[in-house]
Amino acid sequence: MPLKVLAEFDRFVNSLSEKDRIAIITDHDTDGVTAGVIAFKALLQITGKMPAMVIIASNQNEPLSEKTVKVLKKKKINKVVCPDISLDQKERLFFARKISKFAKILNIDHHKVYAKSIGKGNVLVKPQFFSKIDPSRYASAKMCFDLFSRHTNLEGSEWIAALGLYGDWGEKAWKGFFSSALRKAGISLEKIKELHGILAAVDVLEKKRLPECFNNLLSVEKPANSLRSFAKYRQRLESMLREAEMDFWKNAECHPKLEYCFYLASAKYGIAANLINRLAKKAQKTTLIIGQRAGKEIKLSARRSDRKIAVNELLENAVKGLKEGSAGGHEPAAGGKILAKDLGKFKKKVLEILEKKRKK
After folding, report:
1. Where is the DHHA1 domain (predicted)?
2. Which residues in the chain come in under a pLDDT of 50?
3. CA–CA dist 199, 212 (Å, integer)
4. FRET label pair with 99: which of 111, 174, 180, 195, CA 20 to 30 Å apart?
């Protein structure tokens, strides 16, 4: 399998030329943005031409939809490179197949394997197919760097891959690469933390400016100068997170015997993922689920740092049978959504699942 999937990747890349109209569709978090930046740089060097368009997914909208299909068709896209989004997941595979009617797809992703293929002529690359590294720690940015480096020189972009690793908690799995990347770029771990904080804050507070962040990382000459004009968002988010964390410790619904806490965040902005990452570092032996209302839906984030419970499977099983419910992600970190009216059913199902696991 390792040789086969890498050969398929190589064939896709070798088929690219300046005649292609390439779109990059990537996730909105730090790993997704940095993976997209590395893919953009690589494709520019390989084809001699910039990709025709970049789509950054958002919390509110699925990365693939009928609108996405129409936009890609209108722009006459014939190749799609999609990092950090699991196109093999059922809901997305439906649209991937629609896109396949007019464009070939390369999907570089490190989430759970839902299917071994995303359609004839398309290429699905996951760490599970060629590496023994924990998939959740083999960030998509690092995968893009490693894979595209087979075809072009990406020297100077190591720090961007390192930023993606930090964003998905993968730096410890790649200690040598991570420290070397920072040293080459002349930046500190504190700077990486700052850049991740800025991207996370822009994603929450001013999502429409994410393309500006993308372009900044793409063109900045000195890594130390990256994202400076966006620093104010990090300070605002930090203030919101401190307030939300205090409320969590006061009002979360905790079940000590199940090592589980649920919390419904009330902040105006979508802070659930950032809040839960903060809490997961302090409650590593607790299954955490944070929900946050978004119109008629509730967005869900789940974490379990010690991996005693695979939270991707927990959420997937808890949303089964719920209309418009969906979930996915990694064993220690996952996300999903349900209709707000189904919150009671969801919470009950989670408790049932955890109780069964406790009795085993």
Report:
1. 266-355
2. 1, 60
3. 11
4. 111
Give the separation between CA 182 and CA 163, rounded to whole angstroms. Answer: 9
pLDDT on residue 59: 54
CA quadruple 117, 302, 160, 127: dihedral sign? negative
What is the set of domains in the chain, with CATH numbers?
A: 2-232 (3.90.1640.30), 252-359 (3.10.310.40)
pTM over cut 0.85: yes
